[in-house]
Amino acid sequence: MSADILLRAALVGIGATILMDLWAILINRVAGIPLPNWGLVGRWVWHLKDGKVFHDDIGRAAPYRGEAALGWLFHYAVGLVYGVILVAAVGPEWLAAPTFLPAFIWGIVTVGAGWFLLAPGLGAGWAASKTPNPTKSRALNLLAHTVFAIGMYGTALLVG
């Protein structure tokens, strides 16, 4: 993958992550859905260095001074990597003529990392099964990742 393609693929993931964050702010203001706590995600990432992947409750794990910054950095790094993986999987020609379906499929597939790694890692159970309303959590995850897919597609239109 050329440096130009890699840069545009990274921008696809970053643009999608920005749109996902704007979506979170919108549904917070309109529907009162809590904003993601990237600080707790940063705490989870920090504890990975100790080999601790799964927590009963990440809120009870030892805090890390820079956990909010680490969580935000991780969030955007993952988005960037997802953009690069999408372009690598569908081919760089997709950037010249993006279509929504590959972005949508990949956006939905990426929910799996949240459901089967991050959620249990934070103590929320597999696919948010330990949250107060797992069905609502899952629906919100699918919706957020659909917005992420729209962001990948839209950003590809802009950078292609």
Structural write-up:
The protein has 160 residues and is an all-alpha fold. The chain has one domain (3-159). It is built from seven helices and no strands. The protein has helices spanning 3-31, 38-48, 67-90, 93-96, 100-109, 111-122, 134-159. The longest helix is centred in the first third of the chain and has 29 residues, at 3-31. The radius of gyration is 16 Å and the shape is globular.
Essential attributes:
mainly alpha, 7 helices, 160 residues, 0% strand
The major pleated sheet works out as: none
In DSSP terms, counting alpha (H) and pi (I) runs of 4 or more, how many helices?
7
Number of domains: 1
- How far apart lie the N and C ends? 15 Å
Gross geometry: globular
SSE string, helices as H and strands as E: HHHHHHH
Strand pairing plus helix content: what structural class?
Answer: mainly alpha
How much of the sequence lies in strands comes to: under 5%
Helix content: over 70%
Beta strand count = 0
Mean pLDDT, rounded to whole units?
97
- Which regions contain 5 or more consecutive residues with pLDDT less than 50? none
Mind telling me the C-alpha Rg?
16 Å
